[in-house]
Amino acid sequence: MAAMFSLLQVLLLVLALQHSAVATNCKERERHALLELKKGFKDPSKRLFSWEGQDNCCMWEGVQCDNKTGNVIGLDLRNTVSYYQEVGDLYIISSRLEGAGFKGTIPSCLGNLSSLQTLDLSNNGVYQYEPSHQWLSHLTSLQHLVVSGVTFSSNSSTSLLLALNKLPSLVEISLSDCMLESIPLFIPILNFSSLSILDLSENNINSSMPGWFFNLSILEYLDLTSNDFHGRVSHNLVNMTSLKSLNLGVNDFSEDAIPESIGSLCNLDTLDLSRWNISKRFAEFGGVFSGCLRNSLTHLHLSSASLKGIIPDWIGDIKNLQVLDLSNNFLYGSVPSSLARLSSLQEMILVSNELNGTVPEDIGKLSELVNLNLGENHLNVVLSETHFTKLEKLEILFLSYNPLVFNVSSHWNPPFILKTLRISSCSLGTQFPTWLQTQHELHALDMSDVGIADTAPIWFWNLTTKLFSLDLSHNQIEGSIPKTSSFRDSFSIDLSSNRFSGTLPEFGSITRILDLSNNTFSGHIPASIGERMPDMFYLSASMNKLSGRVPSSLCQMKGMGAVDLSKNQLSGELPDCWLNSSALQILDFSNNNVIGGIPESICDMPSLTSLHLSNNNLSGEFPVSLKKCSGLTALDLSHNSFTGSIPTWIGESLSSLDILSLKSNIFLDHIPPEISQLTSLQILDLSSNNLSGPLPRTLGNFSVMQVPQKIGKGLRNVQDYKESLLLILKGREDEYNIKLLSLLKVIDFSGNHLSGDIPEDLTSLYGLQALNLSGNYLEGEIPNKLGRLQQLETLDLSRNELTGSIPWSFSNLSFLNHLNVSYNHLTGRVPSGNQMNTFTDPSIYIGNDLCGFPLGVECAKDGERNREGPSEEEDDEEDDVMLWWYIGSTSGFAVGFWSVWGVLIFKKSWRYGWFYYTNIVCGMIYVAVVLSFARIKKKMMMLMIFRGREG
Ligand SMILES: *[C@@H]1O[C@H](CO)[C@@H](O)[C@H](O)[C@H]1NC(C)=O
Ligand SMILES: *[C@@H]1O[C@H](CO)[C@@H](O)[C@H](O)[C@H]1NC(C)=O
Ligand SMILES: *[C@@H]1O[C@H](CO)[C@@H](O)[C@H](O)[C@H]1NC(C)=O
Ligand SMILES: *[C@@H]1O[C@H](CO)[C@@H](O)[C@H](O)[C@H]1NC(C)=O
Ligand SMILES: *[C@@H]1O[C@H](CO)[C@@H](O)[C@H](O)[C@H]1NC(C)=O
Asked: Coiled-coil segments, which residues (predicted)?
């Protein structure tokens, strides 16, 4: 309630200030003080334009004067850092830094505004509070000090609070998100006699809870959320009898039980202990909630508190509860039927627990319920119409990721009009749900993977008018999308992995994410796509039947992060209009029929990291224009008709490459030794070309390949883009996706005319997992040390002119599962022991003069050699694939995210907000589904600092 109050207050204040154009003249010294203040603003925003000249300063924007005395009593210089739009459970947050912010020290003449009652400097950049500047102490009338989102110098916070303590009229102190690090533990003479609101949330205060808090006997609202407060919360809490809202979540308070004394705070309506690592059975806290708190509490937030056990029945006795947030704990069992007694309940947020019991039909009686969130549990139940009987106010229904069956009749007329429906991976039946037709207010719909195998009815496309986010992916939905369908407000549209057909419809101009992959859309990509959807960030139409040219308007989508049009039937030349203002990271036109060369302008795009053009009809020489692509990490030109030699500048100019595939082209001449300057390479595939000459002696320089660790660096990952590459690993060509690719370290030079011997240098690539040198003219002996490449899984030396014997060290290759040395001139005994004994197919040795197992050719006695090869120390490193995947995907995200889209500083309290779905879009917009409604208004005041594209 108090939180609402303060918001309302701010709102009223703004209104008041905007309409306070009163003809009173302001005091000269106050006007002077304001002008001094203005000087501190780096780049005075529009608002401060009115602050000049001899004008009556009471008329200046943001200035409120007392209409009798003419004294300045209110100063509102708030900056809107971000604004959010609430649609269902979706929050769109956009950066909108209006003013440029204050920097430096607040001029001490601000103290001349001695009648000031309200000072709001929120979100105004860096502010240095100098204790020596006594201006604060002159503001003796100050009641409301709101400086949230202003960065204070780290050493000023204690002195600031001590100075505030001297102001007798202070009612509200809002110092949220000010990067405060400390707080006075002891205040000799505590004043704060009027203080009713104390907001210190979103700071870095590393302290125990100071004792003087407990003497703030009229304090109603205390917010310490998201700090580093630690230790126990004193039982003196009972002294804070006026407290209505107590917010202690996201701190490091000791894991002890919730202080029992909370139970006797008879005015408390809001209790937020989210992210307390309580680690106890929830049922053990019955004592706390049996006091008079049981009657007063309306909002209970215990998200991410490591709560265990079942949801106790006594929750149903907190009879005025409106918001119950138990998300992200370890609660199992049923949704207790006692919850159905909470007749005021508006939000039941039980997402992400281990609930595995039943859901009582009685919850259908909770007629005030707005948000029912049972997602991400193990609820193996059938929900029927009865569960929703009286839920007339329901706006948000979240059931995703439960093995539940949503069993309603197809003619059901639900009592609610939803704004958000998330039912992903539940079982909805094969028919398209008819009852959805009544849900004409939908903003967010996630019906992915629900088993629908039906044609999308024509009325469905009428529902898309207000849809902000649509996910129908992974069903078997058929039909075409009517041309007239309106995705007017759609930000994110995912229709991937269905059976949609027909031509591409028009999507709305604000579309940021469009995934149409794995359908059967046909026809051309609309030529005007770039003009119509200029802010698109991710476009995938891969795996369809699209034909025609790649439209040049794509170049105009400056915020685009990834374009994936692979696996279509696109033809013609690629457009050559790419701009240096583009943020594009990934371009994938592989598996089409495009012709011509690589567009000159492609490397004008400074962020380009991944270029996939394989399997087309591209031709010409290795383009000189790629010299500029210094940020490129993956280049796949395989299966085209490129020719000429591999340029020597490749090593210097493309030094970031970790994937280079030039396979199946007509590249000529020798492999330039400079290629070994590509020290980040993990995959080097030059197979099936016309390369000749010796292998460079410097191949051992690929430093990433030198280390056996499988944890490679994070590879590209923009939205849902799935990078892939065709590789021949186990004797056949397969498509490897990014997760596997980043695990791999591969050299493939097969199918060329390479000659000379296998350089010893190669044997220092200890991380190498696949080495394919087959189908060349390599001669000499197989280096004995090749057996040191402990990670080798694939080794193909077949169809060369190699002589000598197979080194005994091969028996040390404990991961080797594909070996081929056929058609050389090898002699002697096939090594045996360990892994070598598993190769029972004689064809891998055929075409040589070998003997022993499995050839069935006995070796001459004198040719026999010591059966024990040189033993090498074993690297008992675990194949921790999962760990790698985890790190890989996370860092991949980070790379894509930080490198282009700038720096987004997350508030710590978002840690307990729930991110079901995140997208970074167009460098400016961030969308989160915050499944917890916990104090969402405050949470949205999120600081976004964007480096911008030039950063
Ligand atoms: C001053 O403003 C207050 C509140 O807006 C109003 O009630 C009062 O009548 C005003 N007084 C004069 C003298 O205008
Ligand atoms: C209230 O606080 C005072 C000291 O500030 C303490 O002596 C007293 O015991 C507290 N009251 C309770 C009931 O804890
Ligand atoms: C639910 O989970 C708990 C804890 O894992 C287990 O003891 C119980 O048997 C499960 N109940 C059902 C119905 O599966
Ligand atoms: C869809 O909306 C259009 C225009 O609003 C309307 O004319 C049409 O009848 C609607 N179609 C269906 C099937 O509801
Ligand atoms: C393509 O969609 C179908 C049907 O939903 C699905 O079974 C298949 O796995 C998808 N393929 C890929 C590569 O995603």
From this structure: none
